[in-house]
Write a structure and sequence with these properties.
With 302 residues, this protein is mainly alpha-helical. The chain contains 12 helices and no strands.
């Protein structure tokens, strides 16, 4: 706690990423989802470009690296972030954040399938706990799947989770080492923003800009400035001060914050079974990713 910059970085990541699903839900109330996703990423690319120009670090990254960044952007931003945003037009932010919390399980199972990790008895317990959590989520609402909009939202959300997991596994499989993360992010944000804005005009029937409320626009700007830029810098700053395993604990905090804020600010119904489901999923992900280094003290890097 004596390192105030580290403390601020950790709080930024935990709080900002914990508000992401809430902000998306507010933004899509009056703004079509693909516009929310596209404008968010495009504005983030402009902010990143200004930072790179100020630091005199903007340059061409080469065709090979560009190819990697476009694949990563397609999976993580266009598919994962984009489809999750579209899904929140019909799903609550609390439900979306909780189901999205299962993404590390998909990453793990995919890594096992590709031989990047071994399947252990502990992993079996973790996967079983997460499956139990998903069962609790749909226990009472199984009949809601008969509603086309709700069913389609769930389908898009799981497609988004698969996109995020695929992007993570792709990076792990290719062993991609980033020399300039800010520069790579600019290309990722710019590509995703342009593609998603094109999708917005192609797939949105009514995009009357006059109907966009100030609250939704503010939420979209918040996602761009804080969700896509500030939290990223805070996250990577934290990685330079503590181990990646310790920083990964924030994923559990994000889900809890997201569910709490959805209940507090959006008045979303949080039932006892939903809380049990959250506990099972978070515990399952924790069991799979548990490492003794999580709770070891490390000397700060000077």
């Amino acid at each position: 706690m004596k390192d105030y910059k580290l403390t601020l970085a950790i709080l930024t990541v935990a709080i900002v990423w914990g508000t992401t699903f809430l902000s998306i839900r507010v933004a899509v109330e009056t703004i079509p989802a693909w516009f929310v996703a596209g404008i968010r990423q495009f504005l983030a690319s402009i902010i990143m470009l200004m930072i790179l120009l100020y630091r005199r670090q903007f340059q061409w990254i080469g065709w090979k690296n560009l190819g990697y960044q476009l694949i990563f952007s397609s999976l993580m931003l266009i598919v994962a972030n984009g489809l999750t945003t579209v899904a929140e037009e019909t799903l609550t932010s609390s439900l979306t954040s909780l189901i999205s919390a299962t993404s590390p399980i998909i990453v793990f199972l995919g890594s096992v399938a590709l031989g990047l990790q071994k399947f252990t008895f502990r992993a079996l317990i973790g996967v079983s706990l997460c499956f139990g959590g998903i069962t609790f989520i749909f226990w009472d609402g199984i009949h809601d799947l008969a509603i086309p909009e709700y069913r389609f939202g769930i389908f898009l959300l799981f497609c988004g989770i698969l996109g995020w997991a695929s992007g993570t596994i792709f990076t792990k499989k290719m062993n991609i080492q980033s020399k300039n993360i800010s520069l790579n992010l600019f290309y990722q944000f710019a590509f995703a923003g342009i593609i998603q804005i094109i999708f917005a005009f192609l797939f949105t029937k009514d995009y009357n800009f006059g109907n966009w409320s100030l609250k939704s626009v503010s939420a979209m700007l918040y996602l761009s400035l804080f969700g896509s830029v500030a939290a990223f810098f805070a996250y990577h700053y934290a990685l330079t001060r503590v181990s990646p395993v310790q920083v990964s604990i924030l994923a559990y905090v994000n889900t809890i914050i997201s569910i709490f804020l959805s209940w507090l600010l959006l008045k979303e119904d949080i039932s006892a079974k939903f809380i049990i489901a959250a506990g099972l999923i978070i515990l399952g992900v924790f069991v799979i990713n548990y490492n003794r280094e999580m709770f070891k003290r490390h000397k700060l890097v000077k």
